[in-house]
């Protein structure tokens, strides 16, 4: 399938999108220095208790995978235009936040946010 590039993205740095594959994501986290005790798992339902029982506990973060459309991008850009630039930094910030500046890096950014905040940060080994 051919990849289309929006007119504003020509010449912009882009990643090859990270596959939404729990094993691949777990391996990447381990290579980045996180403990092998931390892993990524598929969640097949947020409503069916029988399906949720398959999710190992504790669950420290949830990454949502959804298709990006022109309508979504338009909405996101309009919403972002009304928000001030995030200026927080340093050890006193309650949340570590990374701004995504590279196209198609949303999978990696989700993993970074999921592991840099909350109890998951205790699994960083290197």
From TrEMBL:
Principal EC category: hydrolase
Database matches in InterPro entries: Papain-like_cys_pep_sf, Peptidase_C12_UCH, Peptidase_C12_UCH_sf
Residues covered by the UCH catalytic domain: 14-126
A GO CC term attached to the entry: cytoplasm
The organism's place on the tree of life at top rank: Eukaryota
Sorted UniProt keywords: Hydrolase, Protease, Thiol protease, Ubl conjugation pathway
Catalytic reactions of this protein: Thiol-dependent hydrolysis of ester, thioester, amide, peptide and isopeptide bonds formed by the C-terminal Gly of ubiquitin (a 76-residue protein attached to proteins as an intracellular targeting signal)
Gene3D superfamilies tied to this protein: Peptidase C12, ubiquitin carboxyl-terminal hydrolase
EC identifiers of the protein: 3.4.19.12
Protein known as: Ubiquitin carboxyl-terminal hydrolase
